[in-house]
From TrEMBL:
Keywords: ATP-binding, Nucleotide-binding. It comes from Brevibacillus choshinensis. This is ABC transporter ATP-binding protein. Residues 3-235 form the ABC transporter domain. InterPro entries: AAA+_ATPase (IPR003593), ABC_transporter-like_ATP-bd (IPR003439), ABC_transporter-like_CS (IPR017871), P-loop_NTPase (IPR027417). The lineage of its organism: Bacteria, Bacillati, Bacillota, Bacilli, Bacillales.
Length: 258
């Protein structure tokens, strides 16, 4: 599976939020989308998961124009974990995860034993088995996030789109989710705030500023103190971590507290 977005522009109200963005995620790649608050990461992702149609440009999934595909077909190919989940009714955790199976089934078709197996396995992978019968509404923010990731896993899609998947997670589950996603072996496009996680896990990054891509490439090449200053207006010390061999970013407080 390959995702290619070509010359995407998106407007909201009278304002152009995304300007002529080209982006590609190749088979097996973990691609990160980084940039400050309001730079347009979620807006761009929304156009990729078909919530916001671009005013210009086209998006291709394995050469097929995304907006020409039936919604069920794009749901079979692409799983999404959004930043906020809009769940209207209270479902159990297992029911939430089983919703991930719906693109594979006919209307009103019951869950098969195979669906149940896939759903339970997905819950086990995010460490949420013991919560199967709990109400989704009763979960903490981090627990909800893990369930939504399990739902995306249960969907068994060929491409995963994530909007800040580690938001709300404690450090153990941040690493667990990133490991899990990395191991899937399917292409992943993920908005990320944590630059150290981006450096550790991403094969390539796109850096957004004010709706434009200002840098792209592998983290080792593009994550520099100059780039971070230009994009985030923060001073950093960027080094190579002696154990991981990956870029490690230390942030300096602007109040002189180091
Ligand atoms: N409905 C809307 N009308 C006008 N502007 C909007 C609308 N929705 C979002 N915006 C603006 O679009 C810009 C990009 O927002 P977006 O949520 O894509 O940024 P982001 O990079 O995901 O930010 P964050 O890191 O804070 O989640 C912001 O300036 C936001 O205020």
């Amino acid at each position: 599976m390959k995702l290619a977005a070509k010359d995407i522009s998106i407007s909201l109200g009278n304002e152009q939020i995304i300007h002529d963005i080209c982006l590609e995620v190749k088979a097996g790649e973990f691609v990160g989308l980084i940039g400050p608050n309001g730079s347009g990461k979620s807006t761009l992702l929304k156009s990729i998961y078909r919530v916001l149609k671009p005013v210009a440009g086209r998006i291709f999934l394995d050469g097929d124009d995304l907006y020409q595909l039936a919604p069920r077909e794009s749901a079979r190919r692409m799983a999404v974990v959004r930043q906020e989940s809009s769940v209207e009714f209270d479902f159990t955790v297992l029911e939430m995860v089983l919703m991930g199976r719906s693109p594979h089934k006919g209307m009103f078709q019951m869950d098969t034993p195979e669906d149940m197996h896939i759903g339970k396995e997905a819950l086990a992978r995010v460490g949420m088995t013991d919560y199967s019968e709990r109400s989704f509404f009763s979960l903490s923010g981090g627990e909800k996030k893990r369930v939504l990731i399990a739902r995306a896993l249960a969907q068994q899609a060929e491409l995963l789109v994530l909007d800040e998947p580690t938001n709300h997670l404690d450090v153990r589950y941040q690493l667990q989710v990133m490991d899990l996603v990395k191991q899937l072996g399917i292409p992943v496009l993920s908005a990320l705030h944590d630059l150290n996680l981006a450096a550790m896990y991403c094969d390539r990054l796109y850096v957004l500023k004010a709706g434009r891509i200002v840098a792209s490439g592998c983290p080792d090449e593009i994550l520099t103190a100059d780039l971070i200053r230009e994009v985030y207006e923060v001073e950093t010390d960027v080094s190579i971590h002696p154990v991981t061999g990956k870029k490690h970013i230390y942030f300096f407080s602007s109040f002189g507290v180091t």
